[in-house]
Amino acid sequence: IEYTFTMEDPEVFSQPWTVSAPMTTDHASRGVTSGQLWEYACHEGNYAMINTLSGARALEAVASR
């Protein structure tokens, strides 16, 4: 995950400026590996695939009886 923001305040700054930084973790004491954070949404499909295949195998088992 990369955090990006832009400051746009013409009363304070002469022009807008942007900061972009990767979000990282260093929580080894909690059992979390140090390094870059990854978006959790990418795991949703992993669970859907398991459930889809499990349902298909159940239907195949019923059809073979």
Topology:
Layout: E1 2-7, E2 17-22, E3 24-25, E4 35-36, H1 44-63
Antiparallel strand pairs: 1-2, 3-4
Outline:
By secondary structure, the protein is of the alpha+beta class. It has one helix and four strands, in the order E-E-E-E-H. The chain has one helix spanning 44-63; strands spanning 2-7, 17-22, 24-25, 35-36.
What would your notes on this structure say?
This protein has 65 residues and is α+β, with helices and mostly antiparallel strands. The protein has one domain (2-63). The protein has one helix and four strands, in the order ββββα. The longest helix has 20 residues, at 44-63.
Any descriptors?
1 helix; alpha+beta; 65 residues; two-stranded antiparallel ribbon
